[in-house]
Amino acid sequence: MAHPIQDDRQRPDSTAVWLSGITLRGRHFGGGELLQIRAIVQGSPQAHRFELSKKVCETLDWRQPNGRLKDRACRDVLARLHGLGFLRLPPPRRAPVRRRRVAVTPETAPQPDLSIRARDIDGAALSRVTGSGNPKQERLWNEYIERYHYLGYGVPLGAHIKSEPLISLSGVSLRPDKRIR
């Protein structure tokens, strides 16, 4: 008896293997569902990948807990089935977006730590960087994130606010080249 495919890096060549099913994105697709998916893709030669994923989700009633179609997960499954040679998808409508790296300059290089006592701090606040009208300040913020955040800088999705901390000190003189981060 054929065993279900658990590892999508395998390239099965037997129809019997496909009929036993495959597990992708945490969902098991039985042989009947795989044949339905293939029929949808073959029966819609003019459809693009997003349209195909919506058709597959509607046919299989594949939904998120909130009731929306799992079209993003479905596009991934379709791409994997395409890569395994089970079906043939139309080419992507646009090339994948490559993250543009933010140049890291000496301006954000590590500075020597400053020893400041809590009683020397008069106040602290956040200064808004987003929409400040200061592109240099926003570029610097992006660079700090690129350099020090473990994921680097990525273009934020949706509404977002970039801010930086401001600390007012008493009795402490700082040379202009010293910054508190």
Portion of residues in beta strands equals 5-15%
Overall residue-averaged pLDDT value = 81
For the record, give the distance between the C-alpha atoms at the N and C termini, rounded to a whole number: 63 Å
As a percent range, the share of helical residues equals 25-40%
Radius of gyration, in angstroms, nearest whole number:
26 Å
Major β-sheet annotation = 2 strands, antiparallel
Low-confidence stretches: 1-10
Strand ordering within the main sheet: 1-2
Number of strands: 4
Overall form? elongated
Alpha plus pi helix count: 5
Whole-number tally of structural domains: 2
Order of helices and strands: HEEHHHEHE
Structural class: alpha+beta
What would you say this structure looks like, in words?
The protein is an alpha+beta fold and 181 residues long. It folds into two domains: 15-83, no CATH class; 106-169, no CATH class. Helices cover 31% and strands 12% of the residues. It has five helices and four strands, in the order αββαααβαβ. The strands form two sheets. Strands 1-2 form a two-stranded antiparallel sheet. Helix 3 packs across helix 4. The protein is elongated, with a radius of gyration of 26 Å. It starts with 14 loop residues before the first helix and ends in a 12-residue tail after the last strand. The model is unreliable at 1-10 (pLDDT under 50).
